Every structure is written in C-alpha cells, then in structure tokens.
Amino acid sequence: MADGNITKDILYDAVAPDDFESMLELDRYNARSTAFDKIISATHDHFWDPLDPKYIDFSAPWDMENDALLPDDQVVSLGVPYVLEHLEKTGQKAKFINEMALWQFSSILHGEQGALNLSASLCHVLKDQGAQEYAANQTREEARHVTAFAKYIKARWGRPRPCGVVLQQLLVDIISAPEVYKKIIGMQMLVEGLAMGAFATGFQFNRDPLARKLFQLVMTDEAFHHKFGKIWADRTIPRMSQEERNTVEDWAAHCFQSLLFNLGSPIQQAQVYRDFGLDPDKVLEGVREIIQNDEARRERLKSQTNIFRVLIKTLHNAGLITERTRAFYATYVDMDELKAEGDKMVGDDIAEEGIKYLQEINFKDRNAKPVSIAAE
Questions:
Q1: What is the mean pLDDT of residues 168-181?
Q2: Cα distance between residue 142 and residue 139, in whole Å
Q3: Please, what's the b/e burial string for 146-158 (b: 16 or more CB within 10 A of its CB; e: otherwise)?
Q4: Residue 67, Cα to own-chain centre: how many angstroms?
Q5: pTM for this one?
Q6: Could you give the C-alpha distances from 195 to 227, 293, 346, in angstroms and in order?
Q7: What angle do CA 36, 193, 322 make, to 5 degrees?
Q8: CA dihedral 139, 141, 142, 145 (to 10 degrees)
C-alpha cells in the first residue's frame, strides 16, 4: 500500500493500479470480506434499464419553447430584475429557464461520467474481493446513469453543454489521485453528496414527470453508493492520527469551498445570455451580487434539498467535520440544527419509494422483501 492512502482497515487495502500480480495472491481469494454483501445483494432490488421503456420512457413529450421545466426561484439569474424584465417582455422566459436547466443536467451527466471512471479505477486498486465486487457493481450502475442522462438531454435539447471548469478539475483530480482516501471521500462523499442534493431538488421542483422519474431511479442507486463511503468513514476516520485527520478534513473543506463559490459560476453561461438578447456583463454583475450575499446564501442553504447543505451533512455524518473545522461550515449552515436531524439523508425516502416501484417490475411474480438503504 502506497504511503498517503490513509487506509486503516484491511477492507480498503489498496495496491498500485498496475500491480495486477497482487490480485493473483492465493491467500487473497480466501480472505473476502462480507462487509459489503448486503449492498451487493441489494443491487437486484433496484435494477433498472434506461433502454427499456417499462422502467422509463424517454419518448414522453414536453414543450421546450413554452413550458418551463423549473419554477422561477430555482434559476438564480431570474433574481436579477434586468433579466426577468427582459425575458417577460420578450416572451422568452420559459425557453430561458429550460436552457439553464440544460446546464444543470449537463453538469450531472459529466459528474456521472466521473463517477463511472472513478468506480472503475477502484476495481484496479482495491485488494479485497468484496470491495472490488462492490466497485464493479457501482461501475455498472454509473454507466446506466450516464446512458439515462444522455438520453434525457438528447430527448429534450439534443446535445449537452460542456463541463464547467471547476467541476471538471475536481473530477480529474479525484480520478487521477493515487490516494485512496481522495477517491473515496471525493467521489463517494463529495460528488455523491452533491448528486443526492441535486437529485432531491430535481425530484421536488422539476415539472417534467420524465425528469422526476429519472431522478428517482438514479437515487435508488446513489443511496447505496453513499453507504459504501460511509462504511469507509466508520472504519477509517476513528483510527486516523491527528495529522492524517487534519489532512483529510482540510482537503474536504477545500473541495467544498471551491464548489460552493464556483460550481454555478455564471461566467460560463455568457453566450446563453447573448442568445437571449441580454448583456452578459450586466447579468453577471447582478448574479454575483446574489451569490456573494452571505445572508441570502445562508437562507438558500436552509433548504433540506440544497446541494451544499446536503454535502455538509454528508461530511458531518461521516465524521469529517470536527470542532477544528466546525466554524468554517457554520458560516453557511446551522450546525446544531444539522446534528439534530440525525443520520437520515435527504432523498432516502424518495429512493425507498423508487425501490418499491422497481420491485413491482422486477419481482411482480414473487414477494420481495423490503430493502433498507442503510444496509451494511
């Protein structure tokens, strides 16, 4: 195991990605952990196929010119009077909202591609057979997410938008990182935490029934992906040295802050504003005032489905926020309120309802046992 992996439990023991010889060790075959068996077995209960219309039908129509996918308050730039007045005057508001939604869906698509590559890379380095099998299962599930979001974007817009610079750099850093802790925290907690918040928000606010169904189906998978990272945290973080804990906490906080201030950077959407007859500089000035308003940001972060609030709760539940870093996150959310909510994550109920839907399809001829997302 390379120095810097910060692996404290043999379940997450890792080798170099090109060290295939270690996978052929005879003792390894008789040392398979059972820690992930319930999560692996549960994949049968939440199986779905984005290419089969009995699960989800991408031919469902939507008037992209006249029917807004999102309410006004879900599009930050509509909070700029200059933007709202111009779009209402020209009758382009619905079309503009849908263009902003394309940016959101494109970011999700790129994030799912990152998750696919990351989970595939874990297959090469995780030595335990159970951990390796779980990573292989997640790779398969992330692949269907890429297919599903690509099909939705094609059905509604034709083509996705490019990946934002900040998100792209984070994904590249996580996937190429040699340290196992960066891969697991970066993807299974940071990116998956963002995803669960984004999917819960989409399920709650998106007006397109097809989008809502897509979000729910993906959440039936993501809830288990998050659990894999939680098992790592439970077995690793308490056994870290103070220096190691500080390293991990600082890296998580750095990633969080970078995403908070740059993930939805409006500068990437300048051409969209021009296409709608808006002056990008005036729009950007107004959006920055909204984004940089600490009071307004805190108010947005009170929402149970706000992606950054979900992310903070994910890190908190994993033990990656201590007294040393608590004040940093308290700038954005009420940490006492967050703690009082317990371990249950936003989206768990949505995912469980989605699993029931899938069980009715997958096991309609036999009785299926209820599945707990918290399975370990």
A1: 86
A2: 5
A3: bebbbebbebbbe
A4: 27
A5: 0.89
A6: 14, 24, 11
A7: 90
A8: 160
